[in-house]
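agent> fetching stored inputs for the adenosine-5'-triphosphate docking request
agent> found them:
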Amino acid sequence: MTVQSEQSEEAGVPHSDTQHHSPPAVRLRGARLSYGPRTLWDGLDLDIAPGEFLAILGPNGSGKTSLLRVLLGLQPLTAGTVEVAGAPAHRGTSRVGYIPQQRALEATLTLRGSDLVGLGLDGHHWGIGIRQRTERRRRVRQALRAVEATGYAKTPLGLLSGGEQQRLRVAQALVSDPDVLLCDEPLLSLDISHQRRVSRLIAQQARESQAAVLFVTHEINPVLPLVDRVLYLVDGRFRIGTPDEVMNSATLSELYGTDIEVARVGGRLVVAGAESDHGQDHHIHGGEHA
Ligand SMILES: Nc1ncnc2c1ncn2[C@@H]1O[C@H](COP(=O)(O)OP(=O)(O)OP(=O)(O)O)[C@@H](O)[C@H]1O
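agent> prediction call returned; pasting tokens
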């Protein structure tokens, strides 16, 4: 079953006059994704404005990563259309930055951090002149500094910790100054101070470069002050709206089909799920658990 979203405006909610006149960075129309008989989402209409920060929430297997894969041109829609930066989604464009869900890299990997970050520029037309090479090196250095990875940029990736590898993935996604930034749980395995730093960098990319940010997360609190809208997916149903419109007891109870309480405590969201028949808490995603 698919429940159409109740959106505050049709498809997109422009957040300022400038955004109002800009074409959307991402546009989905009537989008459906099915794997065999299983439909992850259907009837998804969504415009994301340049500079907008969209948090994507939902339980395991609800189709969050699959949506990012559609936008990367890696997964075709079953129905509907998808445009990214004004063109049908296609793979290999430097206009889209991607921070993938963290996977530990092979301990034997000898590629270095600075090489990994440089790969983020490979969609650009750099030419072979000295000036282009100098500019390329300058950008890589700047991105490494932004995530505080300069000290280990020459170390083989396989020898780095999960958090150090993750900061390099963030630098790789930001180095091309993308129009659309797709982030799949980018804060996992980062300590609190680097969570803050990476969140700030991503928000800065949205604000200063007018990049649209799609941020998949199981916990909205670390980014709550940055979020313009939430897309919440549960078992084929979804809601799109501001955090207040989506992250409330009535909406989440309807999405999960069980009683859920959401409270704001000191600027943070706390969610409490009803007990299931088996005496276990339903696994509710989004905020801290009561
Ligand atoms: N190529 C594929 N073929 C068939 N099924 C797939 C494929 N890719 C993903 N799936 C299934 O689709 C569902 C959604 O997967 P997806 O990774 O998008 O979920 P998710 O919301 O990102 O989950 P998580 O929170 O666990 O990362 C899962 O049940 C997954 O097994």
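agent> quick read of the result: The CA atoms of residues 218 and 286 lie 5 Å apart.
agent> awaiting further instructions
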